[in-house]
C-alpha cells in the first residue's frame, strides 16, 4: 500500500479542493462516486435513523442520507476538513435541512463518539486517504449499534493484473500532484471488519477498470 499523507498535508489539500471537490471527484471517477453513495444510502438508511457520515466532505452522502432518514432522523457529518464541512453547511441551508444535521470535525481514526451511538454509519471515499484505514474502519464499527449497518465505498486494486500494472503507472504520476490524487490510494478494510464479527450484506465493484471502487455493506450482529 502506498504511504499515506500526513494529517496536516491532507487538511491543506482539502482546504484548497473544497470549492471544486464535487465536480472534480465526479469528473475523475466518471460519476461512479455518486453511484456508490446512492447505493449505500439505499441499502442502509431508514426513516428515523441516527446516521454518521464519517469523512463527510461537502455532504454529498450526508444529504442523501438526511433525505431518506426524514424529519425524525438525525445525520451527523464528520470530517477532518472544516473547509469541506462549510460547503456541506451551505448545501444544507439551501435545502433547508441544516437543523436536521450535526457537524463535527476531527480524525476518523479517533472518533469522538461513544460505542453504539448510531443506527447507520457511512464512509464514502474517506478511508482511502487515512494513515491507518483498518483502524479507521474499526472505529466506524465501534460506534455502530448492534444490529446496525455500516456502508463503505473506497478505492480498490484493479482485479486484472495487466490493468493493475497500468493503474500503478498512472498512480505514480498522479501521486506527484496532491490536488489530483487527493491523497487517495487503494485500501482493503473488509477483512478487518469480518474478523471483528461483521456480516457482509453487500459487496460490489464499480467504476472504471483503472481506478475501481469497492462498495460494501456489513451488519453488526445484534447482542444475544
Description of the molecule:
There is one protein chain. By secondary structure, the protein is α/β, with parallel strands linked by helices. It has a single domain (7-219), classed as Rossmann fold, CATH 3.40.50.150. The protein contains nine helices and seven strands. The chain has helices at 7-17, 21-28, 32-44, 60-69, 82-94, 133-142, 161-174, 178-181, 190-195, and strands at residues 50-54, 74-79, 101-105, 118-124, 144-155, 199-206, 213-219. It has a seven-stranded mixed β-sheet. α5 (82-94) links the parallel β2 and β3 (101-105). α3 runs parallel beside α4. It is globular, with a radius of gyration of 16 Å. The model has no long low-confidence stretch (mean pLDDT 93).
Topology overview:
Elements: H1 7-17, H2 21-28, H3 32-44, E1 50-54, H4 60-69, E2 74-79, H5 82-94, E3 101-105, E4 118-124, H6 133-142, E5 144-155, H7 161-174, H8 178-181, H9 190-195, E6 199-206, E7 213-219
Parallel strand pairs: 1-2, 1-4, 2-3, 4-5
Antiparallel strand pairs: 5-7, 6-7
Helix pairs in contact: 3-4
Task: List descriptors.
Rossmann fold, alpha/beta, seven-stranded mixed β-sheet, 224 residues
Mean pLDDT value:
93
CATH topology: Rossmann fold
Radius of gyration: 16 Å
The helix/strand series, from N terminus to C terminus, equals HHHEHEHEEHEHHHEE
**CATH hierarchy class name:** Alpha Beta
Structural class determined from secondary elements: alpha/beta
What strand order characterises the main sheet? 3-2-1-4-5-7-6
